[in-house]
Amino acid sequence: MADRSDTESRKLLRRLRDSLAEPGQGQERLDRITHLIADSMGTEVCSIYLFRDEETLELCATEGLKREAVHKTRMKLGEGLVGRVARTASPVNTGNAPGEKGFRFMPETGEEIYSSFLGVPIQRVGERLGVLVVQSKIAREFSEDEVYALEVVAMVLAEMTELGAFTGDGDGMTALHRRPVIYRGATGQEGAAEGRVWLHEPRVVVTNPVADDPVAEIERLRAAVQQLRVSIDDLLSVEHLDKDQKAVLEAYRMFANSRGWSKRMEEDIEAGLSAEAAVEKEQSLTRSRMEQVADAYLRERLSDLDDISNRLLRILTGQGKDTGAAMPENPILVARNIGPGELLEYGRKLRGVVLEEGSVGSHAAVVARALAIPLVIHAERIKSEALNGDPILVDGDQGVVHLRPEETITRAFRDKIAMQAEAQKRYASLRGLPAQSKCGTIIQLHMNAGLMADLPSLEGSGAEGVGLFRTELQFLIRSQMPRRAELVAIYSRVMDAAKGRRVAFRTLDIGSDKVLPYMKPQDEPNPAMGWRAIRVGLDKPGILRMQLQALLRAAGKRPLTVMFPFVAQLDEFTQARSHLLREIHRERSLGHPVPEKIEIGAMLETPSLAYAPKEFFDLVDFISIGGNDLKQFFFAADRENELVRRRYDTLNTAFLQFLCHVVHRCADSDTPLSFCGEDAGRPIEALALAAMGFRMLSMRPASIGPVKALIRRVDLREVRAVIDKAITDGAVSARPALMEWLATQPE
Ligand code: PEP
Ligand code: MG
């Protein structure tokens, strides 16, 4: 192979850079570039195809093909040779293009006379931007050096595209990172917010893809790699690394020390790229390989390599997480995914959160809910499109995100926010009033919480207490198991903040999706039905007992309410209860004060508990229905699976009759009953629950106003009659009848 340090390639890159630096409109620049590349490569044709949308490529500039075809010729991803390059993200090199499988000739371009074809992807770290093609009449394959040279050029073009070098020419091609984009994801948390994008991990922007002095660039690269090695060694020397963390870091070290990796990047620099562009070129290659390998282990390793390239880029550019850039006003966090701890660090500064991944029941979603900020999940690929500071609208109700929205959309959206604010004002005026229906029934409205940050809402929302305190959040946001003293401090601050109002502390509900970072994850086929919640507590009582001790210490003499999650049968409750009784006894014998009043409850989250022996209903001090879990098990529909989670209505008459059965069983033994799943915070659902006999509902703080307003408008006996009629009429859901009836009720 010819020496890649030969100056031809560098000369071309320099000419390219100079040409791009000259003033001119985007189209003019593209035209100049195609001319320049064809000239340097000695080919008759050079064309640039860019993505018009995710599926369509458009011929945007050409030297050699017919000019009329520019901005007319389009092809789908995978269509023809150009489409194949784009789909596979790898070059196509042939001396006989018409004879290639999948060849599709575009008559308007006049390309039929060109036999040889070389196309390479224009891509930037996994983001496909287009295809660069050279063609010539002589039937010959391009040499390895030529392929390489064109790849290097494509790399520079990708950087230039990213920097907006080809936009603003009014030719109808709206630039990447400029056009409005709508993302249809899923609701993680309701609410609407307008703000500016704040990327959790901002992309590194390379502003100098071409470098003049390869010796100096190679030195920069070597120094950066050295710094990277030292930082990995530092990480490895930290104590308390578990086996998995160590294995990942060892893999990082292996890559950082890899001669092949460094050598390839140095060759790219010799060819004219800057150190940053060389790292990115390698990274792009890794990303496209990652998309193609099916083997999970290999993908993991490639993703390690991707991560380490990111670190190297950050070192070289000084950009990245700690860029010092100022957070915009009204920041909306955009991320691929985010852990609960990191989200908490941003805290109430954020107006909204948009994630590419995530799930409704994820910890991040739970935190977003606790912080009462709208969250949209599954906004696919938003990270590669959004830039820091971009205007963005988050519609958590619909699960829709508008990035760089059109003016009309923004106006409509602001109207919606204003209407919601108006409604909130109305609800605030109800704060001191009870949720009393027209028939005189009073429904107690409590709030769900899990963080200290939630507690201020207790005053503002008008909640009478905390019906569900999810204690696992305190465990999830830490990197190691909290100590008892820490828990005592947290719980007593919660009780202080509640100022004597009842707080129902739910013991640790881990397992299922809630995996503690410092506990070995179980490899379970179906974790939602697996080793979770009280099952873990009873099998490994150490943590449960520590938590119960902390609750008792925090309470001192104050009344204490404890409930056990996911109790499926009587003996689980009796065992959990005796753990608590034993701890009370122990506290007493140590001379510590114990609560004057203790309520010990259970969460009913599996249908089985509704048919438990009477002894259970007599023994338990209260029951709280965890509707999120109960519904998923009643209908056998995973609460986190987008394909099924909305399939069954909470107002399904079978489900309502089941709830009615629970109401009767509790009434028979005078057991207080509440409902604390998300449905309790949805006004129509809350109305139905109240009509079925629930006298206490616990919900997110923002729902208390709307639920109270609706309850105060109606006579619950009439609501019950509507539901009963829907049942006798054989309706699948009581919702249509209920909505119809509600429409006849005065505001
Ligand atoms: C429920 O299952 O309804 C519940 C309140 O608990 P979680 O959502 O935390 O599982
Ligand atoms: Mg639950």
Topology:
Elements: H1 7-21, H2 26-41, E1 45-51, E2 56-63, E3 74-76, H3 80-88, E4 92-94, E5 116-124, E6 127-136, H4 144-162, E7 181-184, E8 186-189, E9 192-199, H5 214-236, H6 243-256, H7 259-270, H8 275-292, H9 296-317, E10 331-335, H10 340-346, E11 352-355, H11 363-371, E12 375-377, H12 382-385, E13 391-395, E14 400-403, H13 407-428, E15 435-436, E16 442-449, H14 456-461, E17 466-470, H15 472-476, H16 484-498, E18 503-506, H17 534-539, H18 541-555, E19 560-567, H19 570-589, E20 598-604, H20 614-619, E21 622-625, H21 627-634, H22 653-668, E22 673-675, H23 683-692, E23 696-699, H24 701-713, H25 716-728, H26 735-743
Parallel strand pairs: 9-10, 10-11, 11-12, 16-17, 16-23, 17-18, 18-19, 19-20, 20-21, 21-22
Antiparallel strand pairs: 1-2, 1-6, 2-3, 4-5, 5-6, 7-14, 8-12, 9-13, 13-14, 15-16
This protein binds phosphoenolpyruvate (PEP) and magnesium ion.
Magnesium ion is lined by residues 565, 605, 626, 628-629.
Overall CATH architecture of the largest domain: Alpha-Beta Barrel
Give the tally of structural domains: 4
What's the count of strands? 23
Q: Quaternary arrangement of the chains shown?
A: single chain
**What distance lies between the first and last C-alpha atoms, to the nearest angstrom?**
82 Å
Broad CATH class of the largest domain = Alpha Beta
